[in-house]
Amino acid sequence: MSQNASGETTPKTISKSDAWYPTSQRDLYVVRQLVTKDFKLKYRRSILGIAWSVLNPLLMMCVQAVVFTKLMSRHDSSIPNFPIYLILGNTAWHLMSDATNAGMQSIIHAQSLLKKVRINRWVFPVQKVLFAVVNYTFSLVAVALVMTVFRWTLSPWALMVPLGVLYLTVFCIGLSLLLSALAVFFRDVIHLWGVVLTAWMYLTPLFYSVTILPDWMQSAMRFNPMYLYITFIRRCLLWKMSPGPLIHVGCVGCALLMLAIGYTVFRKLEDRFILFI
Questions:
Q1: What is the rounded distance in angstroms from the CA atom of residue 41 to the CA atom of residue 43?
Q2: How many structural domains are present in the chain?
Q3: Is residue 8 one of the residues assigned to a domain?
Q4: Is 146 domain-assigned?
Q5: Domain residues for 104?
Q6: Nearest to 253 by CA among 155, 154, 184, 171
Q7: Contact in structure between 125 and 103 (CB atoms under 8 Å)
Q8: pLDDT for residue 152 is more than 70
Q9: Maximum distance among all alpha carbons in the chain?
Protein backbone atom coordinates (compact mmCIF):
# COMPACT_ATOMS: atom_id res chain seq x y z
CA MET A 1 0.00 0.00 0.00
CA SER A 2 1.20 3.59 -0.68
CA GLN A 3 -0.10 7.14 -0.20
CA ASN A 4 -0.67 9.69 -2.97
CA ALA A 5 -0.21 13.46 -2.73
CA SER A 6 -3.64 13.95 -1.13
CA GLY A 7 -2.85 11.44 1.58
CA GLU A 8 -5.15 8.70 0.25
CA THR A 9 -4.00 5.11 0.41
CA THR A 10 -3.73 3.31 -2.91
CA PRO A 11 -2.90 -0.34 -3.66
CA LYS A 12 0.70 -1.10 -4.50
CA THR A 13 1.23 -1.94 -8.14
CA ILE A 14 2.15 -5.60 -8.62
CA SER A 15 4.58 -6.32 -11.40
CA LYS A 16 3.94 -9.13 -13.84
CA SER A 17 6.96 -11.05 -12.52
CA ASP A 18 5.65 -10.86 -8.95
CA ALA A 19 2.25 -12.20 -9.91
CA TRP A 20 3.51 -15.78 -10.24
CA TYR A 21 5.68 -18.08 -8.21
CA PRO A 22 9.10 -18.79 -9.66
CA THR A 23 9.01 -22.11 -11.50
CA SER A 24 10.77 -24.07 -8.75
CA GLN A 25 8.52 -22.67 -6.00
CA ARG A 26 5.41 -23.26 -8.11
CA ASP A 27 6.34 -26.92 -8.63
CA LEU A 28 6.99 -27.45 -4.94
CA TYR A 29 3.69 -25.78 -4.09
CA VAL A 30 1.83 -28.03 -6.53
CA VAL A 31 3.54 -31.13 -5.11
CA ARG A 32 2.51 -30.17 -1.56
CA GLN A 33 -1.08 -29.52 -2.62
CA LEU A 34 -1.35 -32.80 -4.51
CA VAL A 35 0.11 -34.82 -1.63
CA THR A 36 -2.36 -33.16 0.74
CA LYS A 37 -5.24 -33.87 -1.64
CA ASP A 38 -4.28 -37.57 -1.98
CA PHE A 39 -3.95 -37.87 1.78
CA LYS A 40 -7.45 -36.50 2.35
CA LEU A 41 -8.97 -38.64 -0.40
CA LYS A 42 -7.30 -41.84 0.83
CA TYR A 43 -8.69 -41.58 4.34
CA ARG A 44 -11.98 -39.84 3.62
CA ARG A 45 -15.03 -41.68 5.01
CA SER A 46 -12.74 -44.24 6.63
CA ILE A 47 -13.57 -45.01 10.24
CA LEU A 48 -10.04 -46.06 11.13
CA GLY A 49 -8.38 -43.54 8.79
CA ILE A 50 -4.63 -43.32 9.25
CA ALA A 51 -4.78 -46.32 11.58
CA TRP A 52 -4.99 -48.54 8.48
CA SER A 53 -1.41 -47.59 7.67
CA VAL A 54 -0.47 -49.14 11.01
CA LEU A 55 -2.89 -52.08 11.05
CA ASN A 56 -2.16 -53.30 7.53
CA PRO A 57 1.54 -54.11 8.07
CA LEU A 58 0.74 -55.53 11.50
CA LEU A 59 -1.89 -57.91 10.13
CA MET A 60 0.33 -58.96 7.23
CA MET A 61 3.19 -59.63 9.62
CA CYS A 62 0.98 -61.75 11.88
CA VAL A 63 -0.30 -63.88 9.00
CA GLN A 64 3.14 -64.43 7.50
CA ALA A 65 4.71 -65.08 10.89
CA VAL A 66 2.20 -67.83 11.59
CA VAL A 67 2.66 -69.39 8.14
CA PHE A 68 6.44 -69.15 7.84
CA THR A 69 7.91 -69.23 11.36
CA LYS A 70 8.33 -73.01 11.60
CA LEU A 71 9.59 -73.28 8.04
CA MET A 72 12.12 -70.50 8.53
CA SER A 73 13.36 -71.80 11.84
CA ARG A 74 14.49 -74.98 10.11
CA HIS A 75 16.34 -73.12 7.38
CA ASP A 76 17.99 -70.19 9.10
CA SER A 77 18.27 -69.67 12.83
CA SER A 78 20.52 -66.63 12.33
CA ILE A 79 17.51 -64.29 12.04
CA PRO A 80 17.33 -62.87 15.56
CA ASN A 81 13.62 -61.98 15.42
CA PHE A 82 11.48 -63.23 12.55
CA PRO A 83 8.40 -60.95 13.04
CA ILE A 84 10.64 -57.86 12.96
CA TYR A 85 12.46 -59.32 9.95
CA LEU A 86 9.08 -59.68 8.21
CA ILE A 87 7.65 -56.27 8.99
CA LEU A 88 10.82 -54.40 7.99
CA GLY A 89 10.85 -56.14 4.63
CA ASN A 90 7.12 -55.82 3.99
CA THR A 91 6.89 -52.10 4.78
CA ALA A 92 9.85 -51.23 2.55
CA TRP A 93 8.45 -53.39 -0.25
CA HIS A 94 5.01 -51.78 -0.04
CA LEU A 95 6.61 -48.35 -0.22
CA MET A 96 8.11 -49.24 -3.59
CA SER A 97 5.01 -51.08 -4.81
CA ASP A 98 2.58 -48.31 -3.85
CA ALA A 99 4.85 -45.58 -5.22
CA THR A 100 5.40 -47.19 -8.61
CA ASN A 101 1.79 -48.34 -9.09
CA ALA A 102 0.47 -44.84 -8.41
CA GLY A 103 3.33 -43.07 -10.19
CA MET A 104 2.90 -45.22 -13.29
CA GLN A 105 -0.65 -43.94 -13.85
CA SER A 106 -0.08 -40.40 -12.59
CA ILE A 107 0.20 -38.77 -16.03
CA ILE A 108 -2.87 -40.60 -17.35
CA HIS A 109 -4.97 -39.63 -14.33
CA ALA A 110 -3.80 -35.99 -14.54
CA GLN A 111 -4.83 -35.60 -18.18
CA SER A 112 -7.60 -33.07 -17.47
CA LEU A 113 -5.19 -30.85 -15.54
CA LEU A 114 -2.38 -31.19 -18.07
CA LYS A 115 -4.70 -30.04 -20.86
CA LYS A 116 -5.62 -26.87 -18.99
CA VAL A 117 -2.60 -25.80 -16.96
CA ARG A 118 1.00 -25.35 -18.00
CA ILE A 119 3.04 -27.25 -15.42
CA ASN A 120 6.11 -29.44 -15.34
CA ARG A 121 4.83 -32.96 -15.95
CA TRP A 122 7.38 -34.66 -13.69
CA VAL A 123 5.51 -33.19 -10.72
CA PHE A 124 2.81 -35.87 -10.92
CA PRO A 125 4.90 -39.08 -10.64
CA VAL A 126 7.14 -37.44 -8.03
CA GLN A 127 4.10 -36.44 -6.00
CA LYS A 128 2.82 -40.03 -5.96
CA VAL A 129 6.16 -41.28 -4.68
CA LEU A 130 6.25 -38.68 -1.92
CA PHE A 131 2.71 -39.62 -0.89
CA ALA A 132 3.83 -43.26 -0.62
CA VAL A 133 6.72 -42.11 1.59
CA VAL A 134 4.23 -40.29 3.85
CA ASN A 135 2.24 -43.51 4.23
CA TYR A 136 5.48 -45.40 4.93
CA THR A 137 6.25 -43.08 7.83
CA PHE A 138 2.91 -44.04 9.41
CA SER A 139 3.71 -47.72 8.92
CA LEU A 140 6.85 -47.18 11.00
CA VAL A 141 4.49 -46.87 13.97
CA ALA A 142 3.65 -50.54 13.39
CA VAL A 143 7.37 -51.33 13.29
CA ALA A 144 7.84 -49.51 16.59
CA LEU A 145 4.95 -51.43 18.16
CA VAL A 146 6.38 -54.79 17.12
CA MET A 147 9.82 -53.84 18.41
CA THR A 148 8.26 -52.74 21.69
CA VAL A 149 6.33 -56.01 22.09
CA PHE A 150 9.53 -58.01 21.55
CA ARG A 151 11.55 -55.58 23.68
CA TRP A 152 13.89 -54.92 20.80
CA THR A 153 16.15 -52.00 21.57
CA LEU A 154 17.56 -49.57 19.04
CA SER A 155 21.24 -49.00 18.36
CA PRO A 156 22.91 -45.81 17.09
CA TRP A 157 22.80 -47.37 13.60
CA ALA A 158 19.04 -46.78 13.59
CA LEU A 159 19.83 -43.15 12.80
CA MET A 160 20.89 -44.27 9.33
CA VAL A 161 17.42 -45.59 8.42
CA PRO A 162 16.27 -42.22 6.97
CA LEU A 163 19.26 -42.36 4.64
CA GLY A 164 18.19 -45.80 3.41
CA VAL A 165 14.63 -44.50 2.90
CA LEU A 166 16.05 -41.56 0.94
CA TYR A 167 17.95 -43.95 -1.34
CA LEU A 168 14.77 -45.97 -1.87
CA THR A 169 12.75 -42.80 -2.56
CA VAL A 170 15.14 -41.66 -5.27
CA PHE A 171 15.01 -45.13 -6.82
CA CYS A 172 11.19 -45.05 -6.80
CA ILE A 173 11.14 -41.59 -8.38
CA GLY A 174 13.31 -42.77 -11.26
CA LEU A 175 11.27 -45.93 -11.74
CA SER A 176 7.98 -44.00 -11.58
CA LEU A 177 9.20 -41.49 -14.18
CA LEU A 178 10.08 -44.36 -16.51
CA LEU A 179 6.83 -46.26 -15.99
CA SER A 180 4.60 -43.19 -16.22
CA ALA A 181 6.15 -42.22 -19.56
CA LEU A 182 5.84 -45.72 -21.00
CA ALA A 183 2.27 -46.17 -19.73
CA VAL A 184 1.08 -43.17 -21.72
CA PHE A 185 2.04 -44.85 -25.00
CA PHE A 186 1.67 -48.52 -24.02
CA ARG A 187 -1.23 -49.13 -21.62
CA ASP A 188 -0.21 -52.79 -21.42
CA VAL A 189 2.61 -51.62 -19.14
CA ILE A 190 0.03 -51.11 -16.39
CA HIS A 191 -1.00 -54.78 -16.50
CA LEU A 192 2.50 -56.14 -17.03
CA TRP A 193 3.86 -54.23 -14.06
CA GLY A 194 1.62 -56.21 -11.72
CA VAL A 195 3.15 -59.43 -13.02
CA VAL A 196 6.65 -58.02 -12.68
CA LEU A 197 6.00 -56.94 -9.10
CA THR A 198 4.72 -60.39 -8.15
CA ALA A 199 7.77 -62.13 -9.61
CA TRP A 200 10.10 -59.52 -8.09
CA MET A 201 8.49 -59.96 -4.66
CA TYR A 202 9.13 -63.71 -4.61
CA LEU A 203 12.69 -63.17 -5.83
CA THR A 204 13.34 -60.78 -2.93
CA PRO A 205 13.94 -62.23 0.57
CA LEU A 206 10.91 -60.70 2.28
CA PHE A 207 9.65 -63.76 4.16
CA TYR A 208 12.64 -66.06 3.74
CA SER A 209 16.35 -65.77 4.34
CA VAL A 210 18.79 -65.25 1.50
CA THR A 211 20.93 -68.05 2.96
CA ILE A 212 18.47 -70.74 1.83
CA LEU A 213 19.13 -69.83 -1.81
CA PRO A 214 21.78 -71.50 -4.00
CA ASP A 215 25.14 -69.74 -4.10
CA TRP A 216 24.60 -68.34 -7.58
CA MET A 217 21.28 -66.77 -6.55
CA GLN A 218 22.86 -65.27 -3.46
CA SER A 219 25.50 -63.68 -5.69
CA ALA A 220 22.80 -62.40 -8.04
CA MET A 221 21.05 -60.64 -5.15
CA ARG A 222 23.59 -57.84 -5.32
CA PHE A 223 21.82 -56.79 -8.54
CA ASN A 224 18.39 -56.77 -6.91
CA PRO A 225 17.79 -53.16 -5.81
CA MET A 226 15.02 -54.02 -3.36
CA TYR A 227 17.20 -56.61 -1.65
CA LEU A 228 19.83 -53.89 -1.15
CA TYR A 229 17.39 -51.35 0.29
CA ILE A 230 15.66 -53.85 2.57
CA THR A 231 19.01 -55.21 3.75
CA PHE A 232 20.12 -51.64 4.52
CA ILE A 233 17.11 -51.10 6.80
CA ARG A 234 17.30 -54.54 8.39
CA ARG A 235 20.97 -54.20 9.24
CA CYS A 236 20.32 -50.88 10.97
CA LEU A 237 17.26 -51.97 12.97
CA LEU A 238 17.39 -55.76 13.26
CA TRP A 239 21.07 -56.64 13.28
CA LYS A 240 22.10 -53.32 14.84
CA MET A 241 25.12 -52.91 12.60
CA SER A 242 26.42 -50.73 9.81
CA PRO A 243 24.96 -51.48 6.37
CA GLY A 244 28.51 -51.64 5.07
CA PRO A 245 30.20 -49.82 2.17
CA LEU A 246 29.09 -52.34 -0.48
CA ILE A 247 25.43 -51.92 0.47
CA HIS A 248 25.84 -48.13 0.43
CA VAL A 249 27.44 -48.19 -3.00
CA GLY A 250 24.79 -50.56 -4.34
CA CYS A 251 21.91 -48.46 -2.98
CA VAL A 252 23.31 -45.19 -4.32
CA GLY A 253 24.24 -46.74 -7.65
CA CYS A 254 20.78 -48.26 -8.23
CA ALA A 255 19.05 -45.02 -7.19
CA LEU A 256 21.13 -42.76 -9.43
CA LEU A 257 21.07 -45.14 -12.38
CA MET A 258 17.29 -45.53 -12.24
CA LEU A 259 16.81 -41.78 -11.78
CA ALA A 260 19.01 -41.08 -14.82
CA ILE A 261 17.17 -43.63 -16.97
CA GLY A 262 13.71 -42.55 -15.83
CA TYR A 263 14.38 -38.83 -16.23
CA THR A 264 15.98 -39.25 -19.66
CA VAL A 265 13.09 -41.32 -21.03
CA PHE A 266 10.51 -39.03 -19.41
CA ARG A 267 12.03 -35.85 -20.87
CA LYS A 268 12.34 -37.43 -24.29
CA LEU A 269 8.67 -38.46 -24.43
CA GLU A 270 6.85 -35.82 -22.39
CA ASP A 271 6.26 -33.41 -25.29
CA ARG A 272 4.03 -36.04 -26.92
CA PHE A 273 2.03 -36.92 -23.81
CA ILE A 274 -0.77 -34.54 -24.74
CA LEU A 275 -1.39 -36.47 -27.96
CA PHE A 276 -1.95 -39.82 -26.24
CA ILE A 277 -3.61 -39.13 -22.89
A1: 6
A2: 1
A3: no
A4: yes
A5: 27-272
A6: 171
A7: yes
A8: yes
A9: 91
